[in-house]
Each structure stands twice: as structure tokens, then as C-alpha cells.
Write a structure and sequence with these properties.
The protein is α+β, with helices and mostly antiparallel strands. It has five helices and three strands; from the N terminus they run βαβαααβα. The longest helix is centred in the last third of the chain and has 18 residues.
């Protein structure tokens, strides 16, 4: 790394284990917001393989040369990845940036801890 380089983060993402709480993700996020934590559920709507470009195999002007050349039989319209879907279903996102003070970050962490303890099964 060069001295002028720096790391950039735009959110902290964590997953809740549904069996560990007496609420779902929506209620957990709502409680976080009530505690002042700018949380939201999930990240993207569907795993990438669920996007139309993959579902319709429309990569290059409607063509998929790798498949046309017989190099793959992959069919994204039938592909499922349970772990990717679980990550999106159980993930919670909290934005972070370089302007947040350590005190603010600790307040958000305290809010997460408070909500987790409140809803713990």
C-alpha cells in the first residue's frame, strides 16, 4: 500500500441466526432503528444468479459465447445457492464511513448488543 492509499468501507454487514431470537429480521432492524442505529435488512434483492441477465443468459447482446462453444451447460434459471439466499435473508446492514466518531460507533454497537439481548431466545 502507498501512503496515500486508504481503505474505504461503506457498511458493516452481519447475520442474525433466526433460531437465536424471538423475532424476525424486520422486527430486529426496527428495534435497532429505535435505538438510533441506522440499520436496514439485507443488501441486494436476490443473489446475482437471480438477476435477468443471468436468468435469460443475456450476457453479450443476448449471447453467451461460453455456452455456445459448448464449454458449459450452466443454466442459471435452475441454479440455487441456499447459503447465498440465507445470507440475504438474515443479513443486517449498518452504514459506516470515515466521519463517524469512535463514540458514535460504540453507541451503535451498544444498540446492537441491547437489541440482541432483548430478543435472545
Amino acid at each position: 500500500m502507498h501512503p496515500e492509499d486508504r481503505a474505504v468501507y461503506w457498511f458493516y454487514y452481519f447475520r442474525m441466526r433466526p433460531e437465536a431470537f424471538r423475532c424476525g429480521r424486520s422486527e430486529f432492524v426496527k428495534a435497532l432503528k429505535a435505538e438510533g442505529a441506522p440499520a436496514s435488512g439485507g443488501y441486494i434483492g436476490v443473489p446475482l444468479y437471480g438477476e435477468p441477465v443471468f436468468q435469460q443468459h443475456a450476457f453479450f447482446a443476448g449471447r453467451w459465447p461460453v455456452r455456445e462453444m459448448g464449454l458449459t451447460e450452466m443454466d442459471f434459471s435452475t441454479h440455487k445457492c441456499a447459503e447465498a439466499e440465507a445470507i440475504l435473508a438474515t443479513g443486517i446492514r449498518i452504514p459506516i464511513d470515515e466521519h463517524m466518531t469512535e463514540e458514535y460507533i460504540l453507541q451503535v454497537a451498544t444498540a446492537v448488543q441491547k437489541v440482541a439481548r432483548h430478543f435472545a431466545a
